[in-house]
Amino acid sequence: MSEFRSFVGRCHAAITEQSQGNPEPFLELWSHAADVTIMAAIGGYQVGFDAVSALLTAASKTQQFDGWQADNVATVLNEDLGFTVELEHYARTVEGEEKSMTLRTTQIYRRESGQWRLIHRHGDILTSIEARW
Fold first, then answer.
1. Residue 99 belongs to what domain range?
2. Is residue 70 part of a domain?
3. CB 3.0–4.6 Å: which of 25, 58, 63, 106 could bond 14 by disulfide?
4. How do residues 7-37 score in pLDDT, each as one tens digit?
């Protein structure tokens, strides 16, 4: 479990860099298998490392934030597969005004050749809704 937690910590540090314009540390944590997928908050979905890499690289150049932190909602882990569900909080200052957003994210990890790798990420913007039952 400590090895997995360490890997998730590396993901957090890499997502911080991703959100500040540097996608490389995050991309280094991804599997290069053909079945990797991403469903990013900016819409659509990509399959395969090349497509995931292209999307994350483009997003890091257009979606830059000053601050990032995550609240873990759930973690599930077995020998070779695990996932996290988190609320990711992003912040930035635009023309002197603080702006923030929260993403609901799920990441799935797989052990490959003895190393944890990211194989799926899904994120969407947390919005307030008024439920009417």
1. 2-125
2. yes
3. 25
4. 999 999 999 999 999 999 999 999 999 999 9
Answer whether 35's CB lies under 8 Å from 87's CB. Answer: no
**Percent with pLDDT over 70 in the chain:** 100
Residue holding tokens 């090895």? Answer: 3
Read off the pLDDT of residues 87-103 as tens digits, 9 standing for 90 and up: 999 998 888 999 999 99
How many domains, the chain? 1
130 within some domain? no
Where residue 78 sits, what CATH number does that domain have? Answer: 3.10.450.50
| CA 132 vs CA 104, 123, 125: distances in Å | 22, 25, 21
